Amino acid sequence: GGDGAGGGGAPAAAAAAERVLFPPTFSVSEIKNKQRRHFMFQRWKQQQRKEKLANRKKRRKEREALGDQAPPKPVPKTIENQRVYDETTVDPNDEEVAFDESTDEFAPYFNRQTIPKILITTSDRPRGRTVRFCEQLSTVIPNSHVYYRRGLALKRIIPQCIARDFTDLIVINEDRKIPNGLVLSHLPDGPTAHFRMSSVRLRKEIKRKGKEPTQHVPEVILNNFTTRLGHSIGRMFASLFPHDPQFIGRQVATFHNQRDYIFFRFHRYIFKSEKKVGIQELGPRFTLKLRSLQKGTFDSKFGEYEWIHKRREMDTSRRKFHL
């Protein structure tokens, strides 16, 4: 009999709840009984969902009735499109920007006078995951060579790199066996960028991954690098890859900047028809956040910094971005 009484209690409680009309200032959190509070909160959420759905249906019907006269759909507000204007945003037709680009450290690369040759190295005595990440990164960046550091200071490595015609040095730092930082130094005269690295996924950890990448030179896509600082960082990434991609390889490396986080992805694509494209992620993937940009090559003691990320001063608004 006990079961029957318990079973009958729930509908009765629900019916009682239907009858209860809360005063407008009442908050569900004021209910002392936890189960009752949870039940009322669920009901309130359900009501909200119903209203939202009803409004959406109503709007859709109105749009269908109006046909071509329907007003354009409102653009949803996002942090990205509510971005605070940055006075350093680059105008593609700006003569000053064009002059700076023609005389900066990357100009010989973009004029096809130098061919990128990259040394990928690690923090001292790297562990398994960092080692594998470096190996996979070297299959993404053509003409790159991996060197595992054992006790040699970066200050000593840089002159050796310059003597052997390396154009860039990438250092992968790790913490507790996990890659967590990337230093990118353009040789011989800089600049040097320090990034925090997160969300590293190696090839075997990516679902539905494609076969290994081929030796072809990939295409490079740089998205959303709009300010002067962003422009400099974009040019640094671009100059890691040979200027003339081999489209037959159908491989593409993407650096996508969103809210100052740079997402890296490496894909292979195929045109199935004129309208359909199939893409396959090859990996690895990782996310970067710029911490500082330094003039010259790596010099932690006496280096001159162009830009440093100072969280307390710079991150006052969620809608302010620097790249």
UniProtKB/TrEMBL annotation:
The Brix domain covers which part of the protein? 116-299
User: Which superkingdom does the taxonomy of this entry point to?
Assistant: Eukaryota
The segments labelled Disordered in the record are: 42-80
Q: Which residues cross the membrane?
A: none
UniProt-listed PROSITE patterns: BRIX
Q: What protein does this entry describe? A: Ribosome production factor 1
Name of the coding gene: Rpf1
Q: Where in the cell is it found?
A: Nucleus, Nucleolus
Gene Ontology cellular-component annotations: nucleolus; preribosome, large subunit precursor
The beginning of the lineage is: Eukaryota, Metazoa, Chordata, Craniata, Vertebrata
Role of this protein: May be required for ribosome biogenesis.
Q: Which GO terms describe its biological process?
A: maturation of 5.8S rRNA; maturation of LSU-rRNA
Look up and give the organism this protein is from.
Nothoprocta pentlandii
UniProt entry tagged with the keyword rRNA processing: yes
